[in-house]
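# step 3/5: fold
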Amino acid sequence: MSYQATAFKVMIASPVDVPAERKVIREMITEWNNVNADLRRTVLLAVGWETHSAPEMGERAQAIINKRILADCDLLVGVFWTRLGTATGDYASGTVEEIEEHLRAGKPAMLYFSNQPVEQGSVDQAQYQRLLEFRSSCQSRGLLEFYSDLSEFREKLYRQLQITLNSHEYFSTAAIHEALPLAATLPASAPLSKEAAVLLTEAAAADGQIIYLHMLNGTLVQVGQENYAGDGDARSLARWEGAVDELEHLGFIAAQGNKREVFKVTSDGFDAADQIADSA
């Protein structure tokens, strides 16, 4: 069934030495949509110069990209490894220009730096030194993320996309919320997912809280003594993570503290749990 949705454009910004990471970003955006789009009425659209630009004359190439592509983007994901990129005349590189212009517009940017090993003889030392200088300047202006391989990058990006979309004020404005379905207006024909219903009813029947932790040895989505994430595969884990997202979005649970590791069932959540129990 068709429905109206809010679309957020995600700009993929990077030099040329991280093509695998650019592919992972697109994959994680698709996975986020698979789990969240129907419920949240929100869609993420991956945007990059290689897929969204067309030949045009009259200005600097990067200025054209900024105007035609970057200006309409809501979130930027930037990735670096050994290179900073080619200077544009106004900035140290095209990627740096995209990041700085995006931040200047007051929009959120998520920056990742790879610690993957590389053969020293294959590294352009001038490029690497410029990258280190840029990274140092970024560290004084915000929170950066580092990763050691593609698997870690994939896991961190997917989890941190959830955090950014759930908690950043850019995605919490009144105008955006007006476009999202409120729990009070959901029709009876739009029930909770199976996983969300399980978490809500079990939490309401226990101590009223859900523990949600990301650890080195896996993810914990726990009610009482039961870890529902368990040792499941990535798709199963995504469903349980999506269930937490779903319940919070509907106002049935609320995060306690900035770490967002404990969620308490709200008054509306207890009412919804009662309705589920009554209809069982």
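# step 4/5: annotate
The longest helix spans residues 19-40.
# step 5/5: archive (pending)
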